[in-house]
Specification:
Helix content: 25-40%
Low-confidence stretches: 186-203
Mean pLDDT: 85
Number of strands: 11
Strand content: 15-25%
Order of helices and strands: EHEHEHEHEHEEEEEEHHHH
Largest sheet: 7 strands, mixed
Shape: globular
Strand order of the largest sheet: 3-2-1-4-5-7-6
Number of helices: 9
Distance between the termini: 6 Å
């Protein structure tokens, strides 16, 4: 199936979807450094490229009708995160970007929406925010299903819970994707704090190599990187290790490294989706939907 990669970052959705034969027709990312990494990693020749999603016109989206099977995107989550101010749709610069996806979906009408956000989206504003999202999808003709999945259950040692939402356009014959069980779902390993250093942040802790990394954020250096103890020597995780915690192959990191500073590489890892999780969902999409172009 052909997909449009919105809020693409460095292409975690793309890597997972491409593993199962899906083809990207275009991408949208406002951050110029993330775009540099994306274009270094992926062959984007001949593809549509958008920057600020709010400047893409309805007419431009409408031109893609009939050519896109999946709109994929991890829309900005700061407005819904426990760590943020949790202003939700009242956050004019971030929360409303979900509606930009809906605007694109209204014009393109792809059979599938494949979305990701933080787990806190489900209970934000006592559940009213998520209800608005479901209502918006329903009004456009999409039946929604969702599940919270943790990256630690899919082959990477990172405790990262995210909610994944699949929207099925009514009448297109797609079957349900969820529930999905992770390969390591029975693994009850915990994030193990080995040594508390001064400060309140989880990144002022040192973690055992036998445990799990905490959820990566947009740490951007600044001594906020997770620390690990190896043979009694404490050090911070490298950018490459952070990319590995998100399931990105080393070859992809090496290409991005040539384009960006360590600070940006840390940020891109924290902003990304876990490729392993996307790949499992992509496989289910391949099996469960009859659309083939």
């Amino acid at each position: 199936m052909k997909f449009l990669d919105l809020f693409s970052g460095i292409g975690g959705f793309r890597l997972g979807l491409e593993q199962h034969g899906h083809e990207c027709v275009g991408f949208c990312e406002i951050d110029k450094y993330a775009r540099q990494s994306y274009k270094a990693i992926h062959n984007t020749e001949g593809e549509l490229e958008y920057h600020d999603i709010t400047t893409v016109t309805d007419d431009q989206w409408r031109e893609l009708k009939g050519t896109v099977d999946i709109i994929a995107g991890g829309f900005p989550c700061q407005a819904f995160s426990i760590a943020g101010k949790r202003q939700g749709f009242e956050d004019e610069t971030r929360g409303t970007l979900f509606f930009e996806i809906m605007r694109a979906a209204k014009q393109i009408q792809p059979p599938i929406l494949f979305l990701e956000n933080v787990k806190g989206l489900l209970n934000h504003d006592k559940g009213r925010t998520f209800r608005i999202i479901l209502q918006a999808m329903d009004e456009l003709g999409y039946d929604a299903e969702w599940q919270v999945l943790n990256s630690k259950d899919f082959g990477v040692p990172q405790n990262r819970e995210r909610v994944f939402i699949i929207g099925h356009l009514r009448g297109t014959g797609g079957r349900e994707i969820f529930p999905i069980g992770g390969a390591n779902e029975q693994n009850d390993s915990k994030v193990v704090g080995m040594l508390d250093l001064p400060g309140k942040d989880q990144y002022n802790r040192v973690y055992s190599i036998d445990g799990l990394s905490p959820t990566l954020t947009t740490m951007q250096g600044g001594r906020q990187e997770p620390k690990v103890m190896i043979d009694g020597h404490i050090r911070k995780l490298t950018p490459k290790e952070c990319w590995r915690l998100q399931g990105y192959p080393d070859w992809a990191f090496e290409k991005a490294k040539q384009m960006n500073s360590n600070s940006q590489l840390y940020k891109q890892a924290g902003n990304g989706v876990t490729v392993n999780v996307i790949a499992v969902i992509a496989e289910k999409l391949t099996e469960s939907n009859p659309i083939q172009r």
